[in-house]
TrEMBL record:
It holds the Pfam family WCX. It comes from Cohnella xylanilytica. One of its GO terms (molecular function) is DNA-binding transcription factor activity. Residues 2-57 form the HTH deoR-type domain. This is YafY family transcriptional regulator. InterPro entries: CBASS_pafABC_assoc_protein (IPR051534), DeoR_HTH (IPR001034), HTH_11 (IPR013196), PafC-like (IPR028349), WCX_dom (IPR057727), WH-like_DNA-bd_sf (IPR036388), WH_DNA-bd_sf (IPR036390), WYL_dom (IPR026881). Keywords: Transcription, Transcription regulation. PROSITE patterns: HTH_DEOR_2 (PS51000), WYL (PS52050).
Length: 321
């Protein structure tokens, strides 16, 4: 985990006068190139790190610099601790306990109990139910590729069943909704694309194809802007009106939120949302079974009826001998 490594490097530099880049690389099992990128990141964060060349050289904090123990408040440190625990539930990686212990070490003993309560009052478990297996492996490989700026090759399976071979420059891993995505520059499409990890297979790190990161700011959530861009105008988002039975009200609340439900006055509840029409949408509606009815648009209602009848025919055994 990069944050763990960065803070560990800072603590080492605070406790030691000087350290070699190769020593740090060996300790954290990364390349010397990665260590120097880390040092640049630390410098950009406002902590002055200098490198000394030649015999007796190494990496050190600027002479006279000391990290103020009060740089962060207890509440801010508790927020960091909560974020670290949350991140550790979502991907394979180093155990955060060592880093959490380092953070706790700067809290005076008189306030340690209050800090412990603050840092554990909110638990964010980003992991999926059941085993994650292959997803964890993909996250580990892709995180490594992003950090080392290595291109990645994989086969991508689109929602309509088509497959394509891709080579991309990975920039950012994104947890959006309940799914993991890779935001990367696709060499075949000559532009940034959003790839769902569950639709990627045969992921390979291309050790001989490093790349230079492009000018993109993840903080601006560019994938959201691209979804609404004119280039995607062919993806028509239509008004969808669904009617839920009283017994399935809880399902509608879980998916859309209690504010989205309107009482129809006949014991049912309606929800109005906007979605692009594709196979995912049909499957999403069918996943509610008989608990939901499509009110608008009419052609979607007819499509769901057609698919439901085909499913019923499949299970009726009419064509089986």
């Amino acid at each position: 985990m990069k944050l763990d490594r960065l803070l560990s490097i800072i603590i080492l530099l605070l406790n030691r006068k000087k350290v070699l880049a190769q020593e740090l690389a060996d300790q954290f099992e990364v390349s010397v190139r990665t260590i120097y990128r880390d040092i640049e990141t630390i410098n950009q964060a406002g902590i002055p790190v200098v490198t000394h060349q030649g015999a007796g050289g190494g990496i050190a904090l600027m002479e006279g610099y000391r990290l103020d123990r009060n740089l962060l408040t207890d509440e801010e440190l508790a927020t960091i601790a909560t974020a670290l625990r949350s991140l550790s539930t979502s991907q394979a990686g180093p155990n955060p306990e060592l880093l959490l212990e380092k953070i706790a070490s700067v809290i005076p003993e008189s306030r340690s109990m209050d800090f412990d309560i603050r840092s554990k009052q909110l638990i964010v478990d980003l992991s999926s139910w059941g085993r994650k297996g292959q997803l964890e492996e993909k996250l580990k490989w892709l995180s490594d590729a992003v950090e080392r700026t290595l291109s990645v090759g994989f086969t991508y399976c689109s929602p309509d069943g088509r497959t394509s071979e891709r080579i991309v420059e990975p920039h950012t891993l994104v947890l959006k909704g309940q799914s993991w995505y890779l935001y990367a520059y696709c060499k075949q499409r000559e532009g940034f694309r959003f790839f769902k990890l569950h639709r990627m297979r045969d992921v390979v790190l291309l050790e001989r194809q490093p790349f230079e990161r492009r000018a993109v700011s993840p903080e601006s959530l560019p994938w959201n802007a691209e979804w609404l861009s004119p280039e995607r105008s062919s993806v028509r988002r239509m008004k969808l009106v669904l009617s839920f039975s009283k017994s399935s009200k809880h399902l509608a609340e879980e998916w859309f939120g209690v504010e989205a439900l309107s009482d129809s006055g006949d014991g049912r509840y309606t929800v109005t949302e906007y979605y692009p029409e594709d196979r995912w949408l049909y499957g999403f509606i069918l996943s509610f079974g008989p608990e939901v009815e499509v009110l608008e648009p009419w052609h979607i209602r007819e499509k769901i009826q057609e698919l439901a009848e085909a499913t019923a025919h499949l299970y009726s055994g009419a064509d089986r001998t």
